[in-house]
Design brief:
Radius of gyration: 16 Å
Helix content: 40-55%
Strand order of the largest sheet: 2-3-1-4
Strand content: 15-25%
Structural class: alpha+beta
Shape: globular
Distance between the termini: 33 Å
Number of strands: 4
Largest sheet: 4 strands, antiparallel
């Protein structure tokens, strides 16, 4: 039986618009992005904000149950990585971080023409297959 992976669309926004998207993802200067996302019940989540939320939750509950804590904390504290992740956004669909191939296909089809334009600098598609994703560096493993 074949594995069934879930998917995620990520966007890197133009430098000048990333902070706007963090503050007001429906801002007119982001058009047509908000309209496309609304059609898919989707929302932008800044990767740096998501990482910071993960670290804060781990620190509230105890880091032992959060295997990515040390790596994620090091990422948000590194100025170069922080700058990178301030411009990177994951697209959540129906409140979920990952979603079906069909949902990702439909979303990607509409967003792809925006890539390389004045709002969306780049678009990428990721899946949940561990072979396609970075693994925790040894120095951050418990």
């Amino acid at each position: 039986m074949a594995e069934t992976w879930q998917f995620q669309i990520r966007l890197r926004l133009a430098d000048a618009l990333a902070e706007t998207a963090r503050r007001d993802p429906s801002a007119p200067e982001l058009a047509p992005l908000p309209e496309i996302l609304a059609r898919h019940d989707a929302a932008l989540v800044c990767q740096l904000d998501a990482f910071a939320g993960y670290v804060a939750e781990a620190e509230r509950q105890g880091v032992g149950g959060f295997p990515l804590y040390a790596w994620t904390k090091a990422t948000i504290e590194d100025p170069i990585k922080k700058a990178k992740h301030l411009r990177s956004f994951t697209v959540h669909v129906d409140g979920a971080e990952v979603y079906s191939r069909e949902a990702a296909d439909a979303l990607e089809r509409e967003l792809k023409p925006l890539a390389g334009g004045p709002v969306v600098a780049a678009l990428s598609r990721h899946d949940t297959n561990p072979a396609n994703n970075p693994q925790i560096p040894k120095r951050y493993r418990s």
